[in-house]
Amino acid sequence: MTTACVARRPLLEPADALDRAARRVLATNWRRHATVPAARLYPHQWSWDSAFIAIGLRHLSPARAQRELESLFGAQWRDGRVPHIVFEPHVPADAYFPGPSFWRSTATPGAPAVATSGIVQPPAHALAVWLTYRADPATARARGFLPRLYPRLIAWHRYLTTRRDLTGSGLMSVVHPWESGMDNSPAWDAPLSRVTPVPPGEFTRRDLDHAAAAERPTDADYGRYVRLARDYRDAGYADSLRGHGFAVEDPLCNALLAAGEHALASMATELGRDPQPHRAAAARLTDALTATLYDPAAGIFFPRDAHTGGHIRSYSVGGLMPLIVPGLPVAAELVETALGDRFRLREACPVPSYDLSAGDHDPSLYWRGPGWVNTSWLLWHGLRLHGEASLADDLRQRLLGRVRDAGFREYLDPMTGTGHGADEFSWTAALVLDLIRAP
């Protein structure tokens, strides 16, 4: 246990230096219509980043937060999918790999005119839209925010619950590790081992121009990522279990989908529509999530390999994320697991992305051990939702202290607080603003 992790700090007021610094990060990374995650490493708009960024922006400018989400959904495909990257046309085409020429979205029927990727990211958007709306309902009503976003969110969820229900279980599958948001998590090692990587000489990575190789996925990882994305692209982005070499029912994505249906029910009520279909969808997702992915003996949710039907018994932070689902029947068990040796909730901060007790835990390697502010924010949100106010406030205060010490880093060592990855990272800044203002 380190002193820096457990030291209590006074609650931060909006005038605090941390608040001002977070505002500067979001101002620097704003690109007229959306916010980039980090200016050099991630120079375009990312899907779930924009959801978290809007949650913070709503405290600074509700209209700008609304615009962030409207910009993303302006690139929605005709089938309802929300792409994981919307490419900024003013950024050089080779600034990020895979870029627009790889994905070829503009040559794909049903894709928008703006260049995008063809895969998706975790569906945090309905929650973000509802929180953004609640920050300033008058401005949102004047701008027609909910009437525009609500049908787009319905189409997005419909895509995930139909086209991406690859096994008939009632759960969505991710078909690429990037879709999970936790790119190189050890949870994906087993299903990825069946994928033949593209040789490194056939692609040029741009991430290593701006980040240390020791903190990023390996070339072999990237070779498999490229193989999966290329095969999906060459199949016209069609979804079927047989067509995907990697297909996993992920607890984090399905939890966000269920929580999102609750948010859609609130939107429906606000718009004078029937919320019951969304409540029913949330109940179905919660039941399927618990019945299919929860392991009572382990006290955690495990991903399920859609090809084999077996659980992937890897203790990643994604297995705790169903705590964000209202009415989750195993919430108390998840809290106990978070407090145990694998995650050490009272000590580790941010919450580690992967089992602290595992022999291959690496506190500096992307999603193989470091803690991320966004998953810690989700856990904080879930703790509050399920009546764990003391644990939630303790986590909140320690997160603010960590960022004040390390800066707005992409991810941090969960035990020492050392920052890693990109600096001036947007969702870290945005969620700090939200944590500062939490009631």
UniProtKB/TrEMBL annotation:
Mannosylglycerate hydrolase MGH1-like glycoside hydrolase domain sequence ranges: 42-428
Alphabetized SUPFAM superfamilies for the sequence: Six-hairpin glycosidases (SSF48208)
A family per Pfam: MGH1-like_GH
InterPro entries assigned: 6-hairpin_glycosidase_sf, 6hp_glycosidase-like_sf, Glycoside_hydrolase_63, MGH1-like_GH
MF-aspect GO terms: hydrolase activity, acting on glycosyl bonds
Highest rank taxon of the organism: Bacteria
Record's keyword terms, sorted: Glycosidase, Hydrolase
Entry annotated with the keyword Hydrolase: yes
Entry keyword annotation includes DNA-binding: no
Homology family: Belongs to the glycosyl hydrolase 63 family.
Protein name (Swiss-Prot/TrEMBL): Trehalase family glycosidase
